[in-house]
Design goal:
Blueprint: E1 2-8, H1 12-20, E2 28-31, E3 49-52, H2 54-62, E4 75-77, E5 79-83, E6 90-94, H3 95-98, E7 104-108, H4 109-121, E8 127-130, E9 135-140, E10 145-149, E11 154-162, H5 169-173, E12 178-194, E13 201-207, E14 210-217, E15 221-229, H6 230-238, H7 241-251, E16 259-261, E17 266-275, E18 279-280, E19 283-285, E20 291-292, H8 300-316, H9 327-355, H10 360-374, H11 377-388
Parallel strand pairs: 1-2, 1-11, 2-8, 5-13, 11-19
Antiparallel strand pairs: 3-7, 4-7, 5-6, 9-10, 10-11, 12-15, 12-16, 12-17, 13-14, 14-15, 17-20, 18-19
């Protein structure tokens, strides 16, 4: 089984790349070990949501993914309010002030996954989907990469794309070095209905015990992401629904009034991962396989989708190069992505360390910095302009 490209990992970023290449004329295989669960035919909500930037939404729209989402389950974000840990220092961002329609869209993970797989499965023989299938070994040859599956099948491609997550098997097989440290925090996610309307405002509080975000969902609902210490996170997960609602209400200064729990809290570990190389001969990394950042900026999935967007553009614009694994071609992708990735790694890691510090002098300085930034529209707009891509 010979292909131009084999993508390993069928999450939103890996599958999104395949969808972007569906009309490229390239032969593509997608390998994914887990079959996606069908969308439930009820009114339940996914506890895992993404803040999709306008740039990412345009990418998904272009390749037929965005139109397949249920519009009534997507909430636009028009404004964002961020508070320091003294609860008075703050910074506000407005779509109106930025001259754009919205700052982001809040969409459910399962809706996005279902939509992108619908696009892929509608391509017929143009894309070979191997799911469920698990890789056993990668072997690099001069002109190709051999991919052996656990069931004994052998595949061959000019280029392998690793899109298999923060603990990437592909990255490990390629011996790509990473700088990694655990934040010793969990991101606790849950959804709530609220007494008061959120008016399409995303709220965030930098607290002494972590970062609390409430993201708008349709009608009077919000999705919570509370990044906090492992001990605090485990305690939150063990609270009764009434106790958790009470705690979130108080932590959010009762901004949205009384709250009721819609989905049970779930926690996931938070780590920083800096990958030393995005490409090697006949190999490219994208998405969480290429970087791991703190969720406080809500940019992890957008960073990955920008990887997919750039790699699709490089492959489409390869000119007379018939070899998708050409090292110079892949270097164009790496050079185009390094600055964006490094900028978000530095900002998110720096903010996490800045606010996860009990030094009282540092506390005063960080809150003062937040307030001063709010009064400087040029700096505010520059921060947001990057996040809109």
């Amino acid at each position: 089984m010979k292909f131009d490209i084999i993508v390993i990992g069928g999450g939103l970023v890996g599958a999104g790349l395949v969808a972007a290449l569906k009309e490229s004329g390239l032969s593509i295989a997608l390998i994914e070990p887990h079959q996606a669960a069908p969308l439930p035919q009820d009114s339940s909500w996914d506890s895992r949501v993404y803040a999709i930037s306008p740039g990412s939404a345009t990418f998904l729209q272009k390749h037929g993914i965005w139109p397949l989402l249920a519009a009534e389950r997507i909430a636009p974000v028009y404004d964002m309010a961020v508070y320091g840990d003294d609860n008075t220092a703050h910074i506000d961002f407005s779509a109106y002030e930025m001259g754009c329609s919205e700052l982001a869209f809040i969409a459910e993970n399962r809706q996005l996954q279902s939509a992108v797989w619908q696009v892929i499965q509608s391509c017929g023989d143009a894309i070979q989907v191997l799911c469920p299938a698990k890789c056993k070994a990668l072997t690099w040859q001069e002109s190709c990469v051999e991919v052996e599956l656990e069931d004994g099948r052998l595949l061959e491609a000019a280029l392998v794309v690793g899109a298999d997550g923060v603990n990437s098997w592909v990255r490990n097989q390629a011996d790509i070095e990473v700088d990694r440290h655990a934040y010793h925090q969990l991101g606790v996610v849950a959804n709530f209905s609220t007494e008061l309307s959120h008016h399409h405002v995303a709220y965030q509080w930098f607290r002494r015990d972590g970062v609390l975000a409430l993201l708008p969902l349709p009608e009077k609902r919000v999705s919570m992401v509370w990044s906090t210490t492992e001990t605090q996170a485990e305690r939150l997960k063990q609270l009764s629904p009434e106790e958790l609602c009470s705690e979130v209400q108080e932590a959010s200064s009762f901004t949205l009034g009384a709250m009721q729990l819609i989905t049970s809290p779930v926690g996931f570990p938070l780590n920083f991962v800096h990958v030393k190389q995005l490409v090697k001969p006949r190999l490219v990394l994208i998405g969480d396989a290429a970087h791991g950042i703190h969720p406080l900026a809500g940019q992890g999935v957008n960073l990955g989708l920008r990887d997919a967007r750039e790699l699709a553009a490089v492959l489409a614009d390869r000119g007379l190069r018939t070899d998708c694994g050409d090292r110079q071609l892949l270097r164009r992708y790496e050079l185009a992505r390094k600055e964006d990735i490094l900028a978000l790694e530095v900002v998110t890691d720096g903010l996490q360390k800045l606010f996860n510090n009990a030094n009282p002098t540092l506390a005063r300085l960080r809150n003062l910095g937040l307030e001063m930034t709010n009064r400087l529209p040029l700096i505010k707009n520059q921060l947001m302009r990057h996040a809109l891509n």
